[in-house]
């Protein structure tokens, strides 16, 4: 099945995935993102030490000594990570639909979406997981070539990207529980899943 702008006649709404309407889930995801930040950060530091003998974790502490400069750098790198993350989502929406995606910014998150399109499970999974996989691989490859002074910034970007993908991972797990024929309509802050055949609508507010 190919992405389509027209919902097939035998498809009906099966489930609505919405993080914004479920406060306990939001708090749980924030906690999971913080946990992933420390886990991935530790993993990436060990990888950097393995592939770059000239790098030391103390470089991260030295980078944090100049507090104002460090905070400004942290803010800038966070915005860079968000831009790259959503740009990759948008790129894959474009690859599958050949139409420019919708980009948006809410109070606590940014998003890329294709609100006019219904995507099968496969393309939706690829689009959802692409930023985590591609930016992580790109960051690990850059570790081999960047000057050591750039490594703290690189580690921060790929760690923030991995931690920020927690919502994408949850959505991917939910999609994998659906049949391959499911169609996903991503509105940015809400994703609606459609199945062929008649069935009851499940209004679980458990996704983006």
Can you walk me through this structure?
Helix 3 crosses helix 5 and helix 4 (121-142) packs antiparallel against helix 6. A four-stranded antiparallel beta sheet has the order 1-6-5-4. A two-stranded antiparallel ribbon has the order 2-3. Strand 2 (102-105) and strand 3 (110-113) form a beta hairpin. The chain has helices spanning 23-51, 58-65, 67-97, 121-142, 151-164, 166-176; strands spanning 11-17, 102-105, 110-113, 119-120, 183-186, 191-196. The chain is of the alpha+beta class. It has a domain at 22-165. Helices cover 55% and strands 13% of the residues. The longest helix has 31 residues, at 67-97. The model is unreliable at 199-208 (pLDDT under 50). It has six helices and six strands, in the order βαααβββαααββ.
List keywords for this structure.
single chain, 208 residues, four-stranded antiparallel beta sheet, 6 strands, 55% helix, elongated, disordered C terminus
What string gives the helices and strands in order? EHHHEEEHHHEE
- Radius of gyration based on Cα positions: 19 Å
| Biggest beta sheet attributes | 4 strands, antiparallel
Widest beta sheet: strand line-up = 1-6-5-4
On the 0 to 100 scale, the average pLDDT is 86
- Strand tally is 6
- What spatial form do the alpha-carbon principal axes imply? elongated
User: How much strand content do the residues show?
Assistant: 5-15%
- Assign the structural class, choosing from mainly alpha, mainly beta, alpha/beta, alpha+beta, or little secondary structure: alpha+beta
* Amount of helix: 55-70%
CA-CA gap between termini: 23 Å
Count of helical regions: 6
Ranges where pLDDT stays below 50 over 5 or more residues in a row are 199-208
